Amino acid sequence: MASSCSLFNSLSSLNHKPHNHHHQITHGPFPSISCTSNNNHNNNNAAIQSSPSVTKHRRAADENIREEARRHRPSSPTTFSSKYVPFNSGLASTESYSLDEIVYRSRSGGLLDVQHDMEALMKFDGAYWRDLFDSRVGRTTWPYGSGVWSKKEWVLPEIDSDDIVSAFEGNSNLFWAERFGKQFLGMNDLWVKHCGISHTGSFKDLGMTVLVSQVNRLRKMNRPVFGVGCASTGDTSAALSAYCASAGIPSIVFLPANKISIAQLVQPIANGAFVLSIDTDFDGCMKLIREVTSELPIYLANSLNSLRLEGQKTAAIEILQQFDWEVPDWVIVPGGNLGNIYAFYKGFKMCQELGLVSKIPRLVCAQAANANPLYLYYKSGWKDFKAVRANTTFASAIQIGDPVSIDRAVYALKNSNGIVEEATEEELMDAMAQADSTGMFICPHTGVALTALIKLRNSGVIGPMDRAVVVSTAHGLKFTQSKIDYHSKTIADMACRFANPPVQVEADFGKVMDVLKKYLKHKALK
Ligand SMILES: Cc1ncc(COP(=O)(O)O)c(C=O)c1O
Ligand SMILES: N[C@@H](CCOP(=O)(O)O)C(=O)O
Predict the structure, then answer these.
(1) For residues 140 and 318, what is the distance between their CA atoms, to the nearest angstrom?
(2) Could you give all domains of the chain from N- to C-terminal order, each with its CATH number?
(3) Where is this region: Disordered (predicted)?
(4) Residue-wise pLDDT tens digits, 125-180
(5) Which ligand is nearest to the CA of 404?
(6) Is 416's C-beta closer than 6 angstroms to any atom of ligand 2?
(7) If you take atom 11 of ligand 2, which residue's CA is the nearest one?
(8) Which H helix or E strand runs over 114?
(9) Which atom of ligand 1 is nearest to the CA of 196?
(10) 3-state secondary structure at position 468
(11) How much is the pTM?
(12) What is the ipTM metric for this complex?
């Protein structure tokens, strides 16, 4: 991509709690579920005052939150369970694997899925689950303070809370895009789910906490897992290396040389991962890591491993929760390796099947036109899937031509009356700049999703009154070079219509006044 030293230089030169009281919710035959309350006036005051061991806050001074969770550990094992089954295998299949096995593919070589014991979960009605999940939001109780682990019973019900590796990820902001919706789309119910405002700056944290927690458990069980590895366009490796570092587990990452942002490259380096920069693209790295993980005791962390999707699906549940369990009309997700679109489908579908909501939203998967195998497949009427050679795109994290989760994505889209859209480089960069001009600071992948929204709104498929949620997958700060290129208008064959370059001006009062007067006049005329 073109760089812009002048803009970069001029940009650089511009730089001259109340007590938590503990209470327990007991639900039917289940062990107590701990949560905390910020309410200073609840009935627990009396209990806290009369307890001889209380020294500060809700637990003894020498006890940490993990130890506290251990103390509350249920005496009997959970009645919920989950296992691997071949993806979309139907009722006739008997093939299944324990989550404690190291297996990524079914016997026939197909994808796997984590299947929950829905009968056990259905013993509780939708209201029960809604209340339980709502009661855990924003707490510090281990591990429920995480937006992922607040849904533990639906994620990894059997893992001991002691084994969980979490950064209290999730619970990300659902941003009402008031100005963008009104100004560019005539919409008043447009929302952006900021999954990138997260521990390592992308939605990958949601899946990685689950995968690394399970690895932590496997290692404690003395299973042959020396370390964890992934191929990455930048975000998976950032999340993997951070969660592994926090648990003291070695991580190994395969990155396509010169194809990821500097911020993304620095993340695994800083977190102590073993980083291989390989002279190929993401699809080449993916092929290599699959071969390597079948030979060496390195556990595969890409979304081919269905554990990841169990965490990622909680973003869908969170969206419903944030709308007080009302279902939006549309959810738009940028797609690359295509695990996330299925994760969203699965999260919504579980909420429907377990009675939390009565329907699911229509899903839209948005791809960069330079890396669009799903879009081409959709346009062929799902007749002819061909992997493509992905070309360079500013949406570099979705520069993927041979997505491993293609079958999962097709299933999700077919079962949600879904749509696939694409965005050219100019479209995605303009959308990103327009969104930023209304107060966001999004990544180019979110620009891809916004382009899909703009196209579907312009064609009337999405109506002005529809409630739409655009999933923002990474933090814009990871992709500042693309913004520098755009705002300095140094991108070949791109008009950069919404560029806003800084004005160079001498350190002279008169000259500064001239520039400002011109600016104010220009604004007044608008
Ligand atoms: C920022 C960002 N957005 C979107 C995606 C696409 O997600 P998926 O690969 O699950 O389709 C990725 C990774 O691929 C990503 O890193
Ligand atoms: N964008 C991803 C690509 C790999 O996807 P995964 O979900 O299969 O790990 C990345 O950041 O590496």
Answers:
(1) 17
(2) 174-200+308-487 (3.40.50.1100)
(3) 19-81
(4) 999 999 999 999 989 999 999 999 999 999 999 999 999 999 999 999 999 999 99
(5) 2
(6) no
(7) 235
(8) strand 112-116
(9) 1
(10) strand
(11) 0.91
(12) 0.99
